[in-house]
Amino acid sequence: MFSPANGNVAFASAIDGWAFRVENFASMFAKKFGLKRETLVRSLWGDYYVNAKTRRIVHGADKLPKKALPSPAKPMFVGFVLDNIWKIYESVRNSDPESMRKRSNIVEKLNLKVNARDYGHRDGKVAVRAMMNSWLPAAKGLLDMVVEKLPSPVVAQRNRLGLLWPHSKPDNVEGAEAWLRMKNAMENCDSSEGSPFIAFVSKMIQKPEDGSQPKIRQPKPREESKGAEELQAPDTNVEAASAPSTWEEQEFVAFTRVLSGSVKAEDQIYVYGPRFQSGSHQGWTNAEVAKVVLLMGRDMSAVEKVSAGSVCGVEGLDNAVLKTATLSNIPPEQMLPLASRLGGSETASDLVVRVALEPHTPLETERLQLGMKKLNQADPMVDTYVMETGELVLAVTGELHLERCLVDLRERFAKGVRFHVSEPIISFRETVSTTGPTVVATTANKQVSITLKAMPIPTSVARKLDQEAPRIRTLLGEAKNNHDHVSQPEELRKMRGTLVEVFEREEELFNMMKSRLWSSGPRSFGTNILLGPPQACKFPCYSKSISMWRGLFFDYEPDECNSLNPTIANGIVAGFQHTTAAGPLCEEAIYGVCFAVEDIHIDDSVVGDGPDPYGPLSGQIISSVKEALRNTIMSSQPRLVEALLRVEIQTTMDTLGSMYNVISKRRGRVVREEIKEGASIFEVEALVPVTESFGFADVLRMQTSGQASPQMVRSHWEVLEQDPLWVPQTEEELEDWSLEDKTLANNNLAAKLVNRTRRRKGLHVVDKIVDKAEKQRTLKRNK
C-alpha cells in the first residue's frame, strides 16, 4: 500500500527541484530529540504529536496536556516538516536586509553548500531553488526511493516474464531449445558474452530542433593524459562542429530496455515489428546500431556498451522502427517475439477524427509523407495512411489533438511544406434497435438458401467487446500462426473471465453463443457476433477460423461427423465480415449487432455436370449473404452510433451557469459535478459528441472569460435515438412535420448526419431540389 510511512511516497516540487520522504526528516531529528529513527519514520505521518515536556510521541491530540503545545496543536508532519520548508519560502518573499539575514542563517544552520550569490539573489525563485535543491535534491530523493522500494531488474524480469514473453514450450526439439535459451536469458537478466541480445523499444523520441542541441558527451579513454587532451583539442572541435549535421540525419532515438545480452555501436541486429510471428518472413528487417546513449533528461551520454537490465537510447533505427519493436540478434526462424500489446492498446476505433492533407505543390508530396511518418513515430496516438484514391489521411483522437498535430507538422516534421487540410472526417457506426424479421439469402444458382436475422446486442456487452478487441486480435493471430495453439493460457483465462462475466447477465444470448458462436466482426475482433444455425448436431463447427474463435470463449472440440461444407461456412463468415465493415446507412462499420443463421438449405439437384454459369459457389454465397444481412439491418430499425468525448472542466461558481449553457448547446450532458474541498472550484465531468466538439474549447473559454478550461478524451460509442429513415405518415404527423418545407430535414439529426456522410463518400443522397413546384415565382425586383 502506498503511504509516506512506508517510504514509497515522496513529496516533490519539479519547479523548484526538490523532493523528500519522511525518512529524510527522521534522520535529521533522530539525534536532536534522542528518538529512534524507525519510530520517527512511523510517526511523522498521521495523527501523531510530540509532548514537549516528556519528549514522548503520542497518538491523537486529546492525549496531550493542555499546555504541552501551543493551541491548536500541530501534527508532527506539520511541525517537523512543513514549517521548516515554509521558513525557506518565507525568507525569499522579499529581498530586504532582514530577509537576506534569514537566508544566511538558514544556509549556515543546515550546512548547505550554496554560493552567496545564489541564495542572495534578488529573484526569489532563483534563491529558493538554489537552497532547496542543495538541502533536498530531487534526484537523490527519488532515486533513493527507487533503489530501496523497487525490485532489481533480475527480480522484476523474473516476475514479469509471463506478461512480457507469453510463450509456452514448443513440441519440436529445435523450437524447445530456442525457447529454453531465451527464457533463461531473460529470466536471469543474463548479460554474459554468449547470451542472446533481446530488447524492447517502447517509443521513439524525437530530438529537439529548437536550436538548443542536447549535449552528447563522448567517453574518453582513461589513459588519455591532460597533455594528450590539449594536443587533440583541434580534432575535438572539428568533431563538435560536425555533430549538428549528424544530429539532423538521425532525428529519433529508440527508447529501449535491454532484457538480456548487451548492445553496442555497429551491432547488426534484427528488428521485429508488433505483427511479427515466429517463423514468418514478414514483419522484420535488418538494422545497424549507429550509437548507444544513456538518456539523462535533455542530455545524452554516449557509451560503449549497455548490458541487460538497463534503459538506454539506440540511434540508427529511424527507418526500421515506427513506434514499437523487439530488437534481437536471434534470426527470425528461432525468434519468439515479445507480447505485441506492450506497444499500447490504441485501436482504429479510438481515432475518430480524420483529415485529408494535400500539398499546395505536387512536388512536395514526398516531403509531406515523410513528415507524416515522423509525426506517426513521435505520437503514439496518431495514425497516418494513404487511401486508395491517393489521399494522405491523418487520424487523431479529437479536435485539440488535431490542432497539436497540425502545428507539429508545420513547425517540426514538414517545415516549409504548405498543405491544405480538409474538413474533419468524423467516424460513425451503425446498429439496430429491434430484432427484425428473417431474410432468406439464396445463391444465384438456387443451390443454397440461408435464413438470417439481426438482433441488437446489449450495450454493456458491446462496450466490453469493444474494450477487449485488441486482446482478441492478439490471441486470434497467435492461434492462427501457431496451428490453433494459444501460447498465452493465463491471458486466455483472464479474457474469458471478463467476457463471460458480462455475457452471463444476458442469459438468452449467452446460451446461444455456447453452441452457435461462429465469429466476430469486422476484421474478426469487433463488436458484432455471428451465430451459426441452431441445429448444432446437423451443422457442427468444422472450420479452423470458427473453432479458433469459439475456443476463445469456451472449451470446445469440433465434431467432424456430418460437418457443413467448408465452402458454405467460409462464404457465410466472409459475407458477415464484409457487411459489418460497411453498413447500409452510410457505409460505416456495424456496432453491437448479433447476426444469427437460422437455417441452411442445400439443394444438390440443381448442380449440373459442367461449370456453373454464375461463377464459384463461394462467391455466390458471399454476395447473397452480404445483401441479405444489409436487408435485415434495414428492416430492424437501424440507428446511427456516434462517438462521445469525456470532458473534464474546472470552473468557479460564477461561471457555472455559462458552462452549462455551452454544454447543452453542444448536445452534451453533465454526468458528475463536485466541489473541490478547501476551494471554491467545481470539477465537472461531461459527455460531448465528437461532431459537436470542434470549437468547444474556444467557445467555453470565451463564455466563461477564460475561467473554465476543458480536457477531452475519448469515452465510448452511444446510439442516437432518432430514426434516420423516419418520415411522417399520419395526418397529425404531416401537420407537425410538413413535407413541403425543410422542417423535417432540419430536425432529424440522425438523417442529417447520414446524408452528410453519404454525400462525402459520393453515395446516392435523396435531396429535395424543388420545395414547392406549383408556387408562383415572384418576378418583382426591389429597387
Task: Describe, in short, the structure shown.
The chain has 24 helices and 30 strands. The protein folds into six domains: 4-147, Yeast translation eEF2 (G' domain), CATH 3.90.1430.10; 153-212 and 249-343, Elongation Factor Tu (Ef-tu), domain 3, CATH 2.40.30; 348-426, Elongation Factor G (Translational Gtpase), domain 3 (Alpha-Beta Plaits, 2-Layer Sandwich), CATH 3.30.70.870; 431-636, Ribosomal Protein S5, domain 2, CATH 3.30.230.10; 639-719, Alpha-Beta Plaits; 722-770, no CATH class.
How does this structure look, described?
With 783 residues, the chain is α+β, with helices and mostly antiparallel strands. It folds into 6 domains: 4-147, Yeast translation eEF2 (G' domain) (Alpha-Beta Complex); 153-212 and 249-343, Elongation Factor Tu (Ef-tu), domain 3 (Beta Barrel); 348-426, Alpha-Beta Plaits; 431-636, Ribosomal Protein S5, domain 2 (2-Layer Sandwich); 639-719, Alpha-Beta Plaits; 722-770, no CATH class. 37% of the residues lie in helices and 22% in strands. It has 24 helices and 30 strands. Strands 6-12-11-14-7-5-15-9-10 form a 9-stranded mixed beta sheet. Helix 12 (365-378) packs across helix 13 (399-413). The longest helix has 23 residues, at 459-481. The chain is globular, with a radius of gyration of 34 Å. Pfam families: EF-G_D2 (PF22042), EFG_C (PF00679), EFG_III (PF14492). This is Elongation factor-like 1.
